[in-house]
Design goal:
299 residues; alpha+beta; Structural Genomics Hypothetical 15.5 Kd Protein In mrcA-pckA Intergenic Region, Chain A; Alpha-Beta Plaits; nine-stranded mixed sheet; elongated; binds uracil
C-alpha cells in the first residue's frame, strides 16, 4: 500500500487549504524548547522539488523527540514514556536512552521498549474484538489484563487508535501507522463509531431526542448523534448510537447527561468496519481496501 497524506484528508474536511511547506498537520512542532540534538531542516524549495508521495513520507518520518515517538506509537502518555526512559527500559540503536528530548529519525533509528521493537517493519492494521475487563494501555501498574495479551501472533508493535473503557467491549483498531491512527481518532475526520447500549432505565422518546441533539457535557455540547431504539424491557432500553467525536467516556457521559446510566456498552462499528464475524477476544488484519475505505480514499 502506498503512503497516504491523511493530513490532506483532515484539511479537506476542515475546509483549510494545503500548506505550501512540506509539513503536514499531523507532524506537530516539538513540544520541548531545548532539544539536545538539532533536527536538520530542509528549505521549502528543496521540499517542493520532491514528488507529493515523497514529501508525505518525509513529513511522516521527520525527526521527533523520543517521548513523542513513544506516545504517538500508542504505548502510553508522554509521562509514561518519561518514566520508562528513567527506568532504563528504552533503547535507541542498542543503547539505553538517557533523555526524553533525544531526537529520533523514525526511518533510521531502532527503538525498543523492554526489548520489543517499536516503529519497525511494514505497516500493520489490526482489528481486535476487545472483551470487557481489558484495558487498552500497554502495561498497567495495577496488573489488570491489557489488550496486548490478546495480540499473540501480531508480528510487531502496534498502538491503539483510540481507546475503549475497561468495561466497554467491541472493536478496537491497533496499528503502527501513527498518521493513520491520528486520522481515525481525530474528531475533524468525522469517522463514525457505532455502539450498542443498554441503559439502566427505560428511556423516553424525549430522552433519546436529547441524545440525538447532542447533550451538554462538562467539556461542552456533543455533536448530534444518530440514535435508534432497538427494544425495551420493563426496566431497560437497548439502543444504538453513532457518534463522530470519541471524547473520553463520551457515550457514558451522554447517557448520564439525560438522567440514566450505561449498563452495557459495545462498539460494533468503526466507519464501515463491523464486528460481524470476529470472535470476542480475537483479532484479524484489516485488508488494504478496508484501510483505504476508512480514510475515504479511492479503492
Ligand atoms: N464511550 C464511552 O463512554 N466509553 C467507551 O469506551 C467508548 C465510548
Amino acid at each position: 500500500m502506498r503512503p497516504r497524506d491523511y493530513g490532506n484528508k483532515l484539511r479537506a474536511r476542515r475546509g483549510k487549504p494545503k500548506p505550501k511547506t512540506k509539513r503536514t498537520e499531523l507532524a506537530e512542532a516539538p513540544r520541548k524548547a531545548a532539544p539536545t540534538r538539532e533536527a536538520p531542516r530542509k528549505s521549502s524549495s528543496e521540499a517542493a522539488r520532491k514528488p507529493a508521495t515523497t514529501r508525505v513520507l518525509a513529513s511522516t518520518s521527520a525527526k521527533r523527540t523520543l517521548d513523542r515517538i513513544l506516545s504517538k506509537a500508542g504505548l502510553g502518555s508522554r509521562a509514561d514514556a518519561e518514566a520508562w526512559i528513567k527506568e532504563g527500559r528504552v533503547k535507541v540503536n542498542g543503547r539505553v536512552a538517557k533523555s526524553i528530548e533525544m531526537w529520533i529519525d523514525p526511518k533510521r533509528d531502532k527503538i525498543t521498549l523492554d526489548g520489543a521493537p517499536i516503529l519497525e517493519g511494514p505497516k500493520l492494521y489490526i482489528l481486535l474484538y476487545k472483551p470487557k475487563g481489558y484495558i487498552t494501555t500497554y502495561k498497567d501498574p495495577e496488573g489488570r489484563p491489557t489488550v496486548y495479551q490478546l495480540l499473540k501472533g501480531v508480528p510487531g508493535f502496534v498502538g491503539t487508535a483510540g481507546r475503549l473503557d475497561m468495561d466497554t467491549s467491541g472493536l478496537l483498531i491497533l496499528t503502527n501507522d501513527t498518521a493513520f491512527a491520528e486520522f481515525v481518532t481525530n474528531p475533524a475526520s468525522h469517522v463514525p463509531k457505532t455502539y450498542l447500549v443498554k441503559s439502566s432505565t427505560r428511556l423516553t422518546d424525549e430522552q433519546l431526542d436529547l441524545l440525538r441533539a447532542g447533550p451538554m457535557l462538562d467539556d461542552g455540547p456533543t455533536r448530534p448523534a444518530i440514535v435508534t431504539r432497538l427494544r425495551d424491557s420493563e426496566k431497560y432500553t437497548h439502543f444504538e448510537i453513532t457518534i463522530s467525536e470519541g471524547r473520553n467516556r463520551q457515550v457514558r457521559r451522554m447517557v448520564e447527561a439525560i438522567g440514566s446510566k450505561v449498563l452495557k456498552l459495545v462498539r460494533v462499528k468503526i466507519g464501515g468496519l463491523s464486528i460481524d464475524g470476529l470472535q470476542i477476544g480475537s483479532w484479524r488484519r484489516l485488508t488494504n481496501n478496508e484501510v483505504k475505505q476508512l480514510i475515504g480514499a479511492p479503492q
